[in-house]
Input
Amino acid sequence: MKKSIALVCSIIASSSVFSADSVHWSYSGSEGPKHWAELSSDNFSCTGKNQSPINLTGFIESDLAPIEFSYMDGGNEIINNGHTIQVNYEQGSYINIDGISFDLLQFHMHAPSENHINGKSYPLEAHFVHADSSGNLAVVAVMFEEGVGNVELKRVWKMMPKHVGGKTVVDKVSADALLPTQRDYYRFNGSLTTPPCSEGVRWLVMKEPMTASKQQIDTFKNVLHEPNNRPLQPKNARPILQ
Ligand SMILES: [Zn+2]
Output
């Protein structure tokens, strides 16, 4: 219990702004993914056996219950934390899975995608991060292909802070608008894909991709200056359910 609360605190700390007390890390070089575990003793999980992202393949047929989404248009803050662009949510949006309610905390993006599906990488992947009352995490992932522009993304991109540490207060960003209509999904156990790489995260990856325009994908890449995807991690003994 204590550990899971610490976990959420660290996710909130790393997600709010570039805080001075968090250990610096990056996606390349001496502070890149291969070195995350060495950067801080808090990052011991980065060498664990249930790490994310993975290549989703070898699916096991399973009777997965639908995820019950109950999202309000509650995105009220867009931040640039130097690792991603993130939309923070006010309370009131949640999903229900395994009979447990997980509150939506924030969503953010990776380009290119972190997870692969059957060996396929996507230009963009959205992560919707949720936590239950004990601090257990559930991440809903949505892949984006290049195609028709996404209307809500257009709104968010217009207001996103271009500089690290920047924050824009916004009104009612919709998370629903970034979800596919068809909500079949893959499920596996994984981790945070950024330090401290904490495990025990329920991963729920939507099968149906969304689309974003080339311009929308490029705008995100330009703001971040470098790809923000952690390399694929070994699947090890984990089953991937569908
Ligand atoms: Zn992410």
